[in-house]
Write a structure and sequence with these properties.
about 400 residues; mainly alpha; 14 helices; about 75% helix
Length: about 400
């Protein structure tokens, strides 16, 4: 696999390009054909998988992305930036602020309407996009900003996973969940038996794939969103095989899984209505992502930084925390999934929600590019001045 497929820059560009392509095609003469294709159901209803192509992407393909997220989350909690509570406390509090404030802004905008249950939509931060923008425009910024952003985004994803599992569960089948839990134990045991170069390794890998697929099938039928199966499998996978899995699958996720999901999710027809006729959902999401996120992350992160200042703790300045806050407003992937889950029964509002996520995340991207570029230029200027003074 080419190394550039692992780059945050490539991932961000691929996601944005796929989303724009999906939106453009959906609003051309090809749109109706694309819609019919995405609504086509695969002939596997006999085994309880009567899913359309669009649902295979959001329920099946995206489970791979969440499996990778869980592997990264586990690594950060065990051996990464979140392993030390003193280091993790400030981004953890900032992440909570980045969830609470956007949700509150959305609820204020949609108060008195039947759309208030869409509050989870603007609570997510897209790790790939945020890191991609930082990589593209942040040359010269201190590494502490990237570390803080990564920790915050990982914790943000953890909160999103909990929201998906709890808020969007429906008609929970505890027997199916129990079966999935048993298979998770089997999956973990098989993972621990993996040994590089062992003759049994190919058979163990095949067995793990089968167990993983059946676990996904059980979670799908349990009433909990099927992507949670990917999360659970990633969390129980032992560290060594988890690292190998992440290394081999991440390029496919960046090049295929996320762009396909972005393309399918963004393939909506722009409503032929005036701006004043857009629903409160549109305005709630479009405002909460670029505004609610930066306020929540900056406010909570700055207060936490003051309260927990000390050796081994974050010492980011107000400006640096605000920079992370602006980047946090790029919701995209998980926000699109939240929107689909929140308004599954209302196609018109789903479409407006998609447009709102694209608009809100787009504003956050532009703002992030400007803020990150300005701060990076300032840091580079200070470094050049210091180097010049040192040579005198």
């Amino acid at each position: 696999m080419p190394s550039f497929l692992r780059s945050p820059r490539f991932s961000a560009v691929a996601l944005l390009s796929a989303a724009v392509l999906g939106l453009v095609i959906a609003n051309t003469a090809l749109g109706p054909g694309l819609e019919r294709g995405l609504d086509w159901h695969t002939p596997w209803g006999a085994i309880g998988l009567d899913l359309s192509i669009a649902h295979w992407v959001s329920d099946g393909l995206l489970a791979v992305f969440f499996l990778l997220v869980a592997v990264e989350l586990k690594h950060e909690l065990v051996a990464g930036e979140l392993a030390n509570p003193k280091t993790a406390v400030v981004p953890a509090i900032a992440a909570v602020g980045g969830v609470l404030v956007p949700a509150l802004v959305y609820l204020l905008v949609t108060a008195g309407t039947p759309y208030t249950h869409g509050w989870p939509i603007p609570t997510a931060t897209d790790i790939a996009f945020a890191l991609g923008v930082l990589a593209m425009f942040g040359r010269g910024l201190p590494s502490t900003i990237r570390v803080f952003l990564l920790a915050l985004a990982v914790l943000d994803d953890l909160i999103a996973i909990v929201i998906i599992a709890v808020v969007f569960a429906h008609g929970t089948d505890f027997l199916a969940l129990g079966g999935a839990a048993v298979l998770l134990v089997v999956f973990a045991v098989l993972g621990r038996r993996l040994r590089p170069g062992s003759r049994a390794q190919p058979y163990l890998i095949v067995a793990m794939v089968i167990v993983g697929l059946v676990t996904w099938w059980l979670v799908y039928h349990s009433g909990v969103h099927a992507t949670i199966a990917g999360v659970a499998l990633g969390l129980v996978l032992p560290r060594r095989p988890a690292g190998t899995f992440h290394e081999h699958v991440e390029p496919w996720s960046n090049a295929v899984v996320l762009p396909v999901f972005a393309f399918v999710s963004a393939a909506v027809v722009v409503p032929a209505v005036g701006i004043s006729d857009l629903s409160p959902t549109f305005w709630g999401v479009a405002l909460s992502l670029p505004v609610g996120k930066v306020i929540g992350i900056t406010l909570f992160g700055t207060i936490a930084g003051r309260l927990f200042r000390g050796p081994g703790r974050s010492t980011l300045s107000f400006g640096s925390v605000m920079t992370v806050g602006v980047l946090g407003g790029i919701g995209f992937t998980v926000s699109l999934l939240m929107n689909e889950l929140a308004f599954a029964a209302n196609e018109e509002i789903v479409d407006e929600g998609v447009l709102a996520v694209l608009v809100g995340s787009g504003i956050a991207m532009v703002a992030s590019a400007v803020v990150v570029s300005v701060r990076a230029r300032r840091y580079r200027g200070r470094r050049e001045l210091s180097e010049a003074e040192a040579t005198e």
